[in-house]
Amino acid sequence: MANTQAISEVAAPRTGRWTEDPVLSVEHLSMHFGGLIAVGDLSFDVGRGDITALIGPNGAGKTTVFNCVTGFYKPTEGRIIMRHGEGRQPELVEAVTASGEQYRRDGAGAVFLLERMPDFEIAYRAKVARTFQNIRLFGGMTALENLLVAQHNPLMIASGFTVGGLLGLGGFREAEKAAIAKAAYWLEQVRLTDRADDPAADLPYGAQRRLEIARAMCTEPHLLCLDEPAAGLNPRETAELNRILQFIRDEHKTSVLLIEHDMGVVMEISDHIVVLDYGVKISDGDAAHVRSDANVIAAYLGVEDESEIDVAEVRADIESDEALQVKPRKARRPARPKSTAKAAPRGRRK
Prior knowledge:
Elements lengths: L1 H9 L11 E12 L2 E12 L3 E5 L6 H8 L7 E8 L5 H10 L3 E4 L2 E5 L5 H6 L3 E3 L12 H7 L2 H7 L4 H5 L2 H20 L15 H13 L5 E5 L7 H18 L2 E5 L3 H7 L2 E6 L2 E6 L1 H5 L2 H8 L9 H16 L24
Parallel strand pairs: 3-9, 3-10, 7-8, 8-9
Antiparallel strand pairs: 1-2, 1-4, 4-6, 5-6, 10-11
Helix pairs in contact: 5-8, 5-9, 6-8, 8-9
């Protein structure tokens, strides 16, 4: 009975500013692969200027959602709305939906229906950038060149589609200087200035992760989608990643949507967390709400019946683990290995 009461106290979802001013709204999204329902009737908002985490056990459908948002998959059902400008803009959203158009601009605002757009238009017009689980840099290019490639569109326009570049016209030279300056700026932010001329493939794993984020930011996105950016990072590299993501949010006002399994990263930097399990949303709120939601605990612990969970006990375990992580440990001097060599008999010399 006590367990049931504790569960009912934490089950109510919390709403936040992400519902009032969303940069992205996913509405009743479903993705079917034959008879397999990878995502089923999913709805959530990504707040403008927020870091939103999409979490859940393996196979929950997180990357499928990313692929629908960025145009790699076309959803079976649902609507994916990207907004430029403040507020929900309901009249403009309904006007674009009814017209059959991919997007429409109206004064300071614009609405894009991503499920209708090809992937390259989503990146170019809707300003959505992403990284992948597996690093996809151009290994033979230098770090600087990787960031210049991300600025291909403005450089091509400035060159008149290669003619101006070949002739070295003034407009192209100015655009090239601006592109190099932007690349240098992001190399500095991810602390890779000293490796600018090194091939991307020669960089350490953590540096390659940071370079991918820098390359995505060179496209000046309104929404940055990161698929497991902390995967394979050590604690120092993870702390550096947290700094970069908070800098992107606070200084550039870029909204971030990330998939992540490292709960330390999620709980430290996320303004909003959405939890999936088997393609269905089971929790939606801030970190305090999600970490104590019985549905989330059940999904991660593999418990089918939430009434079996002792929420108080789980909370105590979480707090105990956090205390152990914070408390410094004394360094132990390694034990001196015992010698296995046999002593030479007395009175004998070699």
